[in-house]
Amino acid sequence: MFKQQGYSVEVTQATRDGGCDIIATRNINGLPFMILIECKRYDKKIT
């Protein structure tokens, strides 16, 4: 999804530390813009 919007995407190492899982970066108007993404996985269905 982020790659389709022109971001460079890096998946970080799995450490279970509660930190970010994906780093998406992109230059917007010559300025660096970074999004930190944390992914969650649940065993039970979320309603």
TrEMBL record:
GO MF annotation list: DNA binding; endonuclease activity
Keyword Plastid: no
The entry's keywords: Endonuclease, Hydrolase, Nuclease
Keyword Hydrolase: yes
Gene Ontology biological process terms from the UniProt entry: DNA restriction-modification system
Signal peptide (residue range): none
Annotated ranges, domain Restriction endonuclease type IV Mrr: 2-46
Pfam families linked to this entry: Mrr_cat
Protein name: Restriction endonuclease
Source taxonomy: Bacteria, Bacillati, Bacillota, Clostridia, Lachnospirales
